[in-house]
């Protein structure tokens, strides 16, 4: 593991750590059936730092809370599949914060930013096709006509682009479903 960057360490101490107590309290109140909030907090920190090393984070607090919430929900889903009789149905009001508009907006912006980075990393033809198909919503036929290529090429290059984007997400520790 590389030595910590002093700038990131300073940013973490000033922008992230002050929210730790609130995050732990929030996790305990919203997800009382989960045994260990420490693991969720630690994994949230890991993902936050990984993202910070590859780019900027608009609001560390929002990113931290949204990441912890998503990890907690994933853990609950896992428990439900592991022991279906031991978990009762969750009330959505117990999972959602009244102020989710801001964290959700930030999460959406960060999702979109990650998708943009993934698409920018693609080879030229894949990038053109993915941009026209996924960002602008063009049909396969419209993309083929616009780029003067066959629909089969659009389909093949689109599949390659999608696979490479998924690989990019995995390499960057992204486990949430993308919500365009």
From TrEMBL:
Swiss-Prot/TrEMBL keywords: Sigma factor, Transcription, Transcription regulation
Domain RNA polymerase sigma factor 70 region 4 type: 113-164
Keyword Mitochondrion set for record: no
An example Gene Ontology biological process: DNA-templated transcription initiation
CDD domains, per database record: Sigma70_r4
Family of this protein: Belongs to the sigma-70 factor family. ECF subfamily.
Full protein name: Sigma-70 family RNA polymerase sigma factor
Organism: Oleiharenicola lentus
């Amino acid at each position: 593991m590389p030595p910590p960057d002093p700038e990131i360490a300073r940013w973490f101490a000033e922008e992230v750590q002050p929210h730790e107590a609130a995050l732990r309290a929030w996790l305990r109140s919203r997800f009382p059936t989960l045994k260990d909030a420490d693991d969720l907090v630690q994994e949230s920190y890991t993902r936050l730092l990984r993202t910070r090393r590859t780019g900027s984070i608009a609001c560390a607090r929002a990113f931290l809370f949204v990441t912890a919430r998503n990890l907690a929900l994933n853990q609950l889903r896992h428990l439900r599949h592991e022991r279906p009789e031991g978990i009762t149905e969750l009330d959505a009001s117990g999972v959602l914060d009244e102020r989710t508009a801001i964290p959700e907006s930030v999460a959406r912006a960060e999702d979109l930013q990650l998708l943009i980075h993934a698409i920018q990393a693609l080879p030229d033809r894949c990038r053109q096709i993915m941009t026209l198909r996924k960002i602008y919503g063009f049909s396969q036929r419209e993309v083929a006509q616009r780029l003067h290529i066959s629909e089969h090429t659009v389909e093949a290059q689109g599949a390659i682009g999608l696979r490479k984007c998924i690989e990019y997400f995995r390499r960057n520790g992204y486990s949430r479903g993308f919500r365009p």
